Predict the structure.
Amino acid sequence: MGTRPPQFAAPPSAILAGHVWSFSRDPLGFLTSAARNYGDTVRLKFGGRTTWFLSDPALIHQILVQDWRKFEKGTGLKRSKPLFGNGLLTSEGEMWRRQHKLIVPIFHPERVASYGPMMVDEADSFTREWVSSTQVDLLEATTELTLRIVMRTLFNAKPGDTGAISEAVECAQAEFARSIPFIIMLPSWVPTPVTPRLRRAISHLDTAVEHLIAQRRNEHADHGDLLSLLLAARDDETQDGMDNKQLRDELLTLFLAGHETSALALAWGLMLIAQNPGVESKLVDEASRVYGNAHPHPNDRAALVYTSAVVQEVLRLYPPAWSVGREAIENCNVGKVPLRKGDVAFFSQWVVHRDPRWFYNPDEFIPERWLDGSTEANPKFSYFPFGGGPRVCIGSQFALMEVILLLSFLVARFHFQLAPEFVPDLYPAITLRPAHPMKMTVTVRQ
Ligand code: HEM
């Protein structure tokens, strides 16, 4: 280890486990204090593996954009293959390139805009039963809502039609989240452990998805949804379509990646708005000025300037994807950091988004910062809620459309009040989740 240059500081660590225990106890606190106390390049040990924790936007840019070919996805995503299979989020190399090319047109801005009215329509019917004094668990509610939206856009289905899939998804996700602490400690050559419960949940999921695919293949009809597009997609060169296994992996990837993150953005957003009445009244004013008593429409997005700033600020303070990791597939230098093949580079939106070099009063919720010019000179990758480079989130425009329209719609209709006993503790699993139920009381606006 003496060959490593001495300037790469590190917090104290245990002899065998390295930093695993300190990290597992409080990932966000540990990483924030590592960056603030030891700088932009911190050398960590997770078991036997060297992990470079980087907080310099220029280095993040180098890894995600300039040198992206020298890296693969990090341990967390690699380990999630039992769930996602070889879908767009987890595949690499030629397989990823081919699938990316097939799927990218599905997220064309015009197609995404066509989903906007459906999204608001789902929110309208979902909240129709809410009367004043209705108590909701906010994350449960936004998850149900974004699940319905993704099911309608992906499968052209009403919730009852795909109940088996959503149940199995919930179960598989919960089981997978439970096994994360064991998973990060294992060396990469040890296969991901799959508990019997997780195996059962995945098998239910597979059966439900295969049934859906078989049904659609037999129908030969274009439903105008993502599944129809995936079934019709052909490789430019070979004219091959996707086989059932690949379709299953892509569907599950889009299904899982496409609802939980948006649900979290909405829930964190409504929590922050409930805590900031000044922001709430500006949102309500903007909604009534832009679309009055109608529903918000994708064409209103350009005019929803303040709402868009609120969403940017929510994704800054509570980024649903709170970290990104990459594994070096060859020796390379990133800035002055000498990465060896197999080393992990790891960066956190939570840490960079709260860096006082880029954002004044970084822990405060100030949507105006996105309108007052203070963020304009910031370097690229001082803000990256959707990652970046070729592996950037393919659903970012879908998600922004959804969160902006729904947040505006919900705040214009309802006032949300947090239960007095709510404690805003965090549970950073694969995504950044609240540790406790987000109980809210809803009041209908006149
Ligand atoms: C607020 C909501 C969302 C956030 C914060 C988010 C965040 C991210 C991030 C950070 C990545 C990059 C991961 C990496 O580099 O390792 C990513 C990738 C991805 N996201 Fe999202 N996402 C959101 C919504 C969505 C939606 C709505 C969909 C689909 C409908 C989606 C599908 C995907 C897929 C397929 C990838 C992998 C892309 C690739 O590797 O080519 N995401 N997302």
User: Anything to note?
Assistant: The first strand starts at residue 41 and ends at 46. The domain at 20-433+440-444 is CATH 1.10.630.10 (Cytochrome p450). The radius of gyration is 22 Å.
